[in-house]
């Protein structure tokens, strides 16, 4: 796992197999509050960050690319404008859209840029728009980028050429600052939690969903048990959505009324279930990612309302085991076995997954690797793949289009009728 501090130290790579950390060489700028997404070959592009070694509000124009094969950084071209708190989205073309970000304390970047696969940058000069930090972006099934929040005015961006904005249905609830969103199925988006930045910035427990394929607007779904701001949402191996952390207290990052209990939303019933509680409160700068074994890593976070200059930061992590890993009597569930898989596949390709448990499988879930910052996972999304049992395993069909699964690394979970997932291999599609 690649990570860096909410301060100004170097990035590290954590190896969960032996719980060891490797410190990476320094980058030209500070990666603090940058945007980051996986490229089609599995490398990670990191856009912007902070210009100086101490807090100043000045963004950086630097691009850095992490190569997991060599544990090294490659310095990319400089962005046209500096960006602190930008958002990134991997496009169906394999390019990466960079949106928003702070140039300085008094100036924000209003022109999106696109990192192109030849290593150059393209400014979307006809798509000028002021956006909040870390816009909640998702590639829609028609290839446009859907901006679901955190402001109450949803939009579509066509990133082709010099770019063009178009209207989208606005959510019913207003500003969801430091709320979150997920694309939990193809074209289906859930937004949840958050709260306005203006005093008293009261968090909400409301949730809304929209189907970008069927059309129409947002509709409210069942609310969470707890109002939350500074929460994280993680798509689980069985397709449900886990929400962790946050605070129910008013204010930007108020540790009072921190929410330790997690909740799971079931897309089939649209009901929330309160599950286990964390031991440590996870607020601003916390993270949560799905692991290939179906568990969830929850880590980090600032424990005070001091923002970037907060003196108390959590440098610890917890691992959550979802209910699908257990039988009703509390014993460990027997997972479907997955014994071999390809390293990479192409769009629309039918490929073989070796498993002795083919007759148990009712769903094959294809979930993009996580890249999380500031209450938003910039890369996760889920597709359910069609499959056919064959001798020795399953023939599985990859997503037909890059609009449905932008190129890059995905985890493939075999899920049985009880919702128990296999351990997932990581497969590249490009």
Task: Explain the overall architecture.
There is one protein chain. This protein has strands spanning 2-3, 12-15, 20-23, 35-38, 44-47, 63-67, 72-75, 87-90, 96-99, 102-104, 107-108, 113-115, 121-123, 137-139, 145-147, 155-158, 164-167, 180-185, 188-192, 207-211, 219-221, 232-235, 241-244, 261-266, 271-277, 286-290, 296-300, 317-320, 344-345, 350-354, 361-368, 372-373, 376-377, 382-385, 387-390, 393-397, 408-416, 426-429. It is mainly β and 430 residues long. The strands form eleven sheets. Strands 29-38-37-31-34 form a five-stranded mixed sheet, with no helix packed on it. It is globular, with a radius of gyration of 20 Å.
The gist of it:
With 430 residues, the protein is an all-beta fold.
Fold blueprint:
Blueprint: E1 2-3, E2 12-15, E3 20-23, E4 35-38, E5 44-47, E6 63-67, E7 72-75, E8 87-90, E9 96-99, E10 102-104, E11 107-108, E12 113-115, E13 121-123, E14 137-139, E15 145-147, E16 155-158, E17 164-167, E18 180-185, E19 188-192, E20 207-211, E21 219-221, E22 232-235, E23 241-244, E24 261-266, E25 271-277, E26 286-290, E27 296-300, E28 317-320, E29 344-345, E30 350-354, E31 361-368, E32 372-373, E33 376-377, E34 382-385, E35 387-390, E36 393-397, E37 408-416, E38 426-429
Parallel strand pairs: 29-38
Antiparallel strand pairs: 1-2, 2-3, 4-5, 5-6, 6-7, 8-9, 9-12, 10-11, 12-13, 14-15, 15-16, 16-17, 18-19, 19-20, 20-21, 22-23, 23-24, 24-25, 26-27, 27-28, 30-36, 31-34, 31-37, 32-33, 35-36, 37-38
């Amino acid at each position: 796992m690649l990570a860096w501090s909410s301060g100004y130290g170097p990035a590290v790579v954590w190896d969960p197999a032996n719980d060891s950390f490797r410190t990476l060489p320094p980058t030209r700028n500070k990666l603090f509050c940058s945007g980051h997404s996986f490229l089609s070959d599995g490398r990670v592009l990191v856009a912007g960050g902070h210009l100086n070694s101490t807090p100043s509000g000045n963004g950086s124009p630097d691009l850095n690319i992490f190569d997991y094969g060599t544990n090294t950084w490659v310095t990319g071209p400089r962005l046209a404008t500096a960006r602190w708190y930008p958002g990134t989205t991997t496009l169906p073309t394999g390019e990466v859209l960079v949106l928003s970000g702070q140039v300085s304390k008094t100036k924000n970047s209003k022109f999106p840029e696109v990192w192109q696969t030849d290593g150059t940058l393209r400014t979307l000069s006809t798509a000028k728009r002021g956006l909040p930090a870390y816009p909640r972006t998702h590639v829609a099934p028609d290839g446009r980028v859907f901006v679901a929040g955190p402001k109450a005015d949803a939009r579509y961006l066509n990133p082709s050429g010099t770019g063009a904005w178009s209207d989208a249905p606005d959510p019913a609830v207003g500003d969801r600052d430091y709320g979150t969103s997920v694309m939990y199925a193809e074209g289906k988006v859930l937004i949840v939690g958050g709260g306005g930045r203006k005093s008293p910035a009261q968090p909400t427990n409301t949730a809304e969903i929209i189907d970008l394929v069927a059309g129409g607007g947002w509709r409210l779904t069942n609310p969470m048990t707890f109002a939350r701001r500074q929460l994280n949402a993680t798509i689980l191996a069985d397709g449900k959505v886990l929400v962790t952390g946050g605070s129910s207290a008013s204010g930007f990052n108020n540790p009072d009324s921190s929410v330790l209990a997690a909740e799971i939303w079931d897309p089939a019933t649209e009901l929330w279930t309160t599950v286990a509680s964390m031991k440590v409160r996870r607020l601003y700068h916390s993270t949560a990612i799905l692991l290939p074994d179906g568990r969830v890593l929850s880590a980090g976070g600032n424990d005070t309302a001091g923002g970037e200059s907060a003196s108390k930061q959590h440098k610890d992590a917890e691992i959550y085991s979802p209910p699908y890993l257990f039988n009703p009597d509390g014993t460990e569930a027997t997972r479907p076995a997955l014994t071999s898989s390809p390293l990479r596949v192409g769009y629309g390709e039918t490929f073989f997954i070796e498993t002795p448990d083919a007759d148990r499988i009712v769903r094959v879930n294809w979930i993009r690797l996580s890249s999380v910052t500031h209450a938003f996972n910039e890369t996760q999304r889920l597709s359910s793949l069609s499959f056919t049992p064959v001798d020795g395993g399953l023939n599985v069909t990859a997503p037909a289009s890059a609009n449905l699964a932008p190129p890059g690394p995905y985890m493939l979970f075999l899920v049985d009728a009880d919702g128990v997932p296999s351990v997932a291999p990581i497969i590249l599609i490009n």
